[in-house]
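Reminder: ligand-aware prediction takes two inputs, not one.
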Amino acid sequence: MSLFVHGLSALDLSWWCGERGLVGASWHVDLLLNGELGEDGMLFDFGEVKPWVKQHVDGTVDHTLLVPTKMAGVSVTECREGLCVRFSSPWPMEIRAPRQAFTLLPWQIIDADRIGRYLSEQLMKRPPARVTDIQLTLREEPIPEGFCYGYSHGLKRHIGNCQRIAHGHRSRLYIWRDGELDEALIQHWCERLADIYLADREDCIGAEDGDTLSLAYDAPQGHFRMTLPRQRAAILPTTTTVEQIAQWIANETARMQPGRIRVQAFEGIGKGAIAEAHR
Ligand SMILES: Nc1nc2c(c(=O)[nH]1)N=C([C@H](O)[C@H](O)COP(=O)(O)OP(=O)(O)OP(=O)(O)O)CN2
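Here is what comes back for the chain with LPXRUNBV:
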C-alpha cells in the first residue's frame, strides 16, 4: 500500500552552483510512503505525517546554505563564529556563521533529486511503524518564463531561521503600470534580480566603493559575516523583508518610469507583498 502527500511543506534555502554561484531556491515537498495497513485502516495518519516530515526538513536543510563540500574550490574550516565556508568558482564568496546556518553535503554538485533522496534516507533512519519505504521529492513551482526572480538574503531581526545570512527564495514577480501588466518591466527586474544577494545597507561594513562587499550582523543565533563581489549584490536602503523588496522595486521603477506602479513580489511559494509608488 502507498500513501502520498503533495505539497506537504515548502523549502526555502540557498545552494552553491558551479555555474551560477549563490542560488536562492524554493521547492514544494512531496511525499510517498510504502508500507502495511494497521488495524485502523491507515498506513500512517495524515495528521501525524505532516508534522513529522515538516519538523525534519525545517530542522535540517530549510533556511540553510547547502554546501557541496567536494566541489573544487570549496573549503570549510572552524572559526570563531562557527564555520568559515569559502567558495572560489564561479566567483569568490566567504561566509562565517553558526554551524546551523549550513548544510554540508559531501558531494561535487547539488541537485534537487539528490537532496530528496538524502532527506528520504534521513527519515528512513527512524521510520514510523508499518512504513517500509519513504520517497521525498522536491518540486519547483512552475513559473512562466520571465516572471521569476531568485535571491538570497538574511534578516537579522527575525527570531527564526530567516536570520541566517544566506538563505533564499525562487519567486514570482508581477508589475503593473497604470493598471496594465508590464511584461518588459517584469523581465527587466527578473534579469536584474537573477541569483542576486540582497543586502541591507545597515549591514554593509568597510569601503563603500571597492569591488568586494562585506556584510556583518549579530542575531539571536550568533554572529554572521559575509564577503562577495559587489556586482553579485543589490544594496537596499532597508531590511530585505518581502514588503521592503516590493516597495524598493516600486520606488526604483517609479523613479525611471512615469505612471502608477504596483508591484506584487512573492517570497518563495504562495506568499509575498504588494507595494505601490508613483511619480
Ligand atoms: N512579513 C514577513 N514575514 C517574514 C518575512 C518577510 O519578508 N515578511 N520573511 C521571512 C523569512 O525570510 C523566511 O525565509 C520566510 O519564511 P517562511 O517560509 O514563511 O517561514 P517558515 O519556514 O517558518 O514557514 P513554513 O510555513 O514552514 O514555510 C519570515 N517572515
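The chain is about 20% helix and 45% strand. Residues 10, 12, 58, 62-63, 155, 158, 160, 162, 167, 241-243, 267-268 surround LPXRUNBV (CB under 6 Å). We will return to this case in the review session.
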